[in-house]
Design goal:
Layout: H1 2-37, E1 44-47, E2 52-59, E3 64-69, E4 72-77, E5 81-82, H2 114-132, E6 134-135, E7 138-139
Antiparallel strand pairs: 1-2, 1-5, 2-3, 3-4, 6-7
């Protein structure tokens, strides 16, 4: 009796998981379909293969779009169109310290305290060493096959 109850609970959980998964995928399909139906010229898009550009024209009957990518026009099936990727803000290595924290702004005024300037120069040296491939005074070659070490 106890094993029968356990089996019923397991089967019920499996059915529940399948129902939740199916519902979630149906919502995603609906959102993608709404996005593709709302495409209009000038919208920025990406293709499934990674081409980025703007919509030049849309033909909903043939399910095709024409994408303008830096002056080059190409025709795509509407199923290959996705939302463009979100490009994160770029931060150069010279602007952060070894832990990824932003470096303090350097002011044009000269302070009388030499410890602050030496501390800032030591941070700049650490960043410079990191860029060149040095870590804790140990030389680590980033490109051993190129022979740049």
């Amino acid at each position: 009796m106890e094993s029968m109850l356990f089996m019923i609970v397991i089967i019920a959980l499996m059915i529940l998981m399948m129902w939740v998964s199916g519902r979630k995928s149906k919502q995603q399909q609906t959102a993608i379909q709404d996005f593709r139906q709302s495409l209009k010229p000038g919208d920025e898009v990406a293709t499934s293969t990674g081409l980025l550009g703007k919509i030049a024209s849309v033909d909903q009957e043939k399910e095709q779009v024409v994408i303008d990518s830096e002056g080059s026009l190409s025709r795509w099936r509407i199923q290959a169109i996705a939302k463009p990727p979100i490009v994160p803000a770029y931060v150069h290595d010279d602007e952060v310290d070894e832990e990824g924290n932003p470096l303090p702004e350097v002011e044009n005024e000269q302070d009388d305290s030499p410890s602050d300037s030496s501390e800032q120069s030591s941070k700049a040296d650490k960043v410079r060493r990191r860029i060149q491939g040095f870590h804790r005074q140990d030389h680590i070659c980033r490109f051993p096959r190129v022979g740049s070490c």
